[in-house]
Amino acid sequence: MTTFLGMPATAPRGVGNLRGDEPFPQAARRELGNAQLRRNLGHATTTIRRKSGAVISELPDWQELRTAGSALKAATMARLPELLEQLEANVTAAGGVVHWAADANEANRIVTDLVRATGHQRVIKVKSMATQEIGLNEALEAAGIAPVETDLAELIVQLGHDRPSHILVPAIHRNRSEIREIFLREMPGVDPGLTDEPAELAAAARRYLRETFLSTKVAVSGANFAIAETGTLAVLESEGNGRMCLTLPDTLITVMGIEKLVPTWRDLEVFLQLLPRSSTGERMNPYTSMWTGVTPGDGPQNVHLVLLDNGRTAVLADEVGRQALHCIRCSACMNVCPVYERTGGHAYGSVYPGPIGAVLSPQLTGVADNASLPYASSLCGACFDACPVKIDIPSLLVHLRNEVPHPRSERVAMAAAAYTMDHLALYTRAQHAAKLSKHVKRLPPPFNGWTASRDLPPPPPETFRDWWAKR
Ligand code: SF4
């Protein structure tokens, strides 16, 4: 056991998938040129939005549920250390083993060692954002262990040597003919006559995975929720593949971000209503699996829980930014975001794309490492309206924009503007001078960055002061 006495640390560089190779504007420009991607995304997000809107409108108390979800999350964050210790005590008492991971390196090392100790070289995986965040698959592969994704969309991404582009539907950028090609190329034993009918594609994946489920003794999962008062972990999913992984193997290792806690069983009631309606547009997700430590003779007999920080306590330390930890990963904000719908998830560079990614990733890595993401938004506010736990993403974006290191030219320009506005005579002269620039469409360097992607509005023919003086 280690004792941590320093300031909260951000997610380390060189490991995991929170940082892209290029700034958002550059990546977005390239992705915008992909018409197929925009068609796939437009179709998928419109369908999910329609389904979700229909089931949400059935609940007369939806707004009260959102308020309850938001309040529960805020209360949980306020007592996180105490609740985590309660969770640890209850998981341990139920026969599980709890591990604390300060960052991605430590979490990857813990999981790799646990798998090695079993003597097996293959693990089946339940869809998990936390393991993608820390780059667990890459770490396992480097250690000679083969991770097999069992969620259909994750499997498509894995077989396609691709990157996920959506929290809930990681292969949202692929259409069915692209998926067929990936299966034909990469899936062992696939029927060469496979068509692109969704039922046929699902059956091919099922055949491939069935053999893997039955012959693999170690599983790795994430967790949607952890209940502190009982030490119970929960995974919500639609396909049943998760339940196979959570029940068939001998060893189950769960990697969970420390913010996924809820204090009591009753609290779960709120989130079990909010999550499926916001994410998949279902009244209830088809499979909710819960387990508490080890049950002798039933299910995995070696149960481990890795509690992952990786920058989360640094986010918690920011009174404004900590709201991002309320996220239940429903992906509703992505499905309504006009920027995400046009650029797709890869442009964000992190496994957390869309509006929540634009605020969570920079906070986990430190804002300087993801400085362009707080600007990957039009601040239209659709994400705030859609979020089932009422995370005020637009305010978070503005908060983070203030923390981004600004270029010297911008700081000088702002200081000059502030000085001018503080001095009336100077301000009046500047207003009159601006009128002379009515035919200017682009600003000269170093201000040309502003007008590179915006029209410079023409100055009004008369200032307010002139208008007032005439009356
Ligand atoms: S920020 Fe809100 S809407 Fe977006 S994924 Fe998280 S919970 Fe869902």
Q: Describe it for me?
A:
With 471 residues, the protein is α/β, with parallel strands linked by helices. Helices cover 49% and strands 10% of the residues. The strands form two sheets. Strands 1-10-7-4-2-3 form a six-stranded parallel sheet, sandwiched between helices. The radius of gyration is 25 Å and the shape is globular. The mean pLDDT is 94. The site of iron/sulfur cluster has 14 residues, from helix 14.
E-strand count = 10
* Percentage beta strand: 5-15%
Mean pLDDT: 94
What is the end-to-end distance? 76 Å
Please give the share of residues in helix.
40-55%
The strand order across the widest sheet is: 1-10-7-4-2-3
Question: What's the quick description here?
Answer:
This protein has 471 residues and is α/β, with parallel strands linked by helices. The protein has helices at residues 24-32, 35-56, 62-78, 80-93, 104-118, 129-134, 136-142, 152-159, 176-186, 198-215, 241-247, 265-279, 312-316, 332-336, 338-343, 354-365, 382-386, 393-401, 408-422, 424-435, 448-452, 464-469, and strands at residues 97-101, 122-125, 146-149, 218-221, 225-227, 232-237, 251-257, 261-262, 287-292, 302-308. Strand 5 (225-227) and strand 6 (232-237) form a beta hairpin.
List the main descriptive attributes of the protein structure presented here.
10 strands; four-stranded mixed sheet; globular; alpha/beta; six-stranded parallel sheet; binds iron/sulfur cluster
